TrEMBL record:
Gene: TTLL7
InterPro entries according to UniProt: TTL/TTLL_fam
Keyword check for Protein transport: no
Pfam families in UniProt: TTL (PF03133)
Keywords: ATP-binding, Ligase, Nucleotide-binding
The keyword Membrane is annotated on this UniProt entry: no
Lineage, opening ranks: Eukaryota, Metazoa, Chordata, Craniata, Vertebrata
Designated name of the protein: Tubulin polyglutamylase ttll7
Species of the source: Xenotaenia resolanae
PANTHER family referenced in this protein's UniProt entry, alphabetically: TUBULIN POLYGLUTAMYLASE, TUBULIN POLYGLUTAMYLASE TTLL7
């Protein structure tokens, strides 16, 4: 395995656990190449058939916030019932006028909503804000504006989201695996519906670990059932104990994942075939990808997709189980 460009310590733990041999940095013949950033198409084209690399070309079509919004918008127009798990979203500056028309219509109906503003290609909660006074939004800035889900499912009075881990092993055909555990990431201030007075209280409204870890209320706990970061296996048991339909919960999650990756598949398949021309359908893929789906639940337990993470911090994943599960494919197949 060549991990020259990887900065995640958890990958190195997996190497040791799986008895992999760490290749020299200049060795281009390693069985497995692990990068913590996007891979050049030329690199994928040069791989030998026995080699594997941890990124697909074209996956940015769902992993950049603006690309995800653009591609989902197309699907919503033709299949609105099937793609109802995305909050209303606008891409600025291109959709500034559509957004302002939507706000005017709300005002005409005497309704007021809260919106969340995100940098188009931001990460770790940087640059995110909540607004209600939409007239102040600059028309020429590049960011995403999304309806804020103000009625979330709460845990002990706190807002939270789920980090679901997905493994894609092939794009031709599309093969997806769903890891049956993951992370529950909780806010660190008790939740109250947004109003003019609390819009800036990001520890209450945002569930990003990178934001909440700076709050004095953040609880670090190495167990999976306590603290500000918990396991989805614990959450699944919580649902079962409280008589929620666990099978439906996982079914809804699986459906959301499959439909999202269907959006990416044409882009990934085209880019992969450009890199690996002449390979027949069904041949072994030299690429695989681990994705983090960030999902929030509303009070009816319906999952809503917030974003898809690429190059995710595997140190978060290591808390649920060692990374070698990826290599041994200890994931639940979604049956594609």
């Amino acid at each position: 395995i060549n991990v020259f460009s990887d900065g995640f310590f958890s990958v190195r733990i997996a190497i040791r656990e799986m008895d992999f041999i760490k290749a020299r940095d200049v060795d281009e013949t390693a069985n497995l190449i692990w990068n913590d950033s996007a891979v050049q198409h030329e690199k994928i084209a040069e791989l030998r058939n026995y080699q594997r690399i941890n990124h697909f070309p074209g996956m940015g079509e769902i992993c950049r916030k603006d690309c995800l919004a653009r591609n989902m918008s197309k699907m919503i127009k033709c299949q609105p019932q099937e793609y109802s798990f995305i909050p209303k979203t606008w891409i600025f500056p291109a959709e500034y006028t559509q957004f302002q028309n939507y706000v005017k219509e709300l005002r005409r109906k005497r309704k007021q909503k809260t919106f969340i503003v995100k940098p188009a290609n931001g990460a770790m909660g940087h640059g995110i804000s909540l607004i209600r006074n939409c007239e102040k939004l600059p028309a020429q800035e590049h960011f995403i504006v999304q309806e804020y889900l103000d009625k979330p499912f709460l845990m002990e009075g706190y807002k939270f989201d789920l980090r679901i881990y997905i493994l894609v092993t092939s794009c031709d055909p599309l093969r997806i695996f769903l890891y049956n555990d993951g992370l529950v990431r909780m806010g660190t201030e008790k939740y109250h519906s947004p109003n003019e007075a609390n819009l800036s209280q990001l520890y209450m409204h945002l569930t990003n670990y990178s934001v909440n870890k700076h709050n004095e209320n953040f609880e670090r706990d190495e167990t999976m059932d306590k603290g500000s970061k918990r396991s989805i296996s614990w959450f699944t048991e919580f649902l079962r104990i409280n008589d929620y339909d666990v099978a439906k919960f996982w079914g809804d999650i699986s459906e959301l994942v499959v439909k999202t990756l269907i959006v990416a598949e044409p882009h990934v398949l085209h880019a992969y075939r450009m890199c690996r021309p002449g390979q027949p359908p069904g041949s072994d893929s030299v690429c695989f990808e681990v994705l983090g789906f960030d999902i929030i639940l509303d009070r009816k337990l319906k999952p809503w997709l917030l974003e898809v993470q690429i190059g995710i911090d595997m140190c978060l994943f290591i808390r649920t189980r060692y990374l070698f599960l990826i290599f041994s494919f200890d994931f639940y197949s979604l049956g594609l």
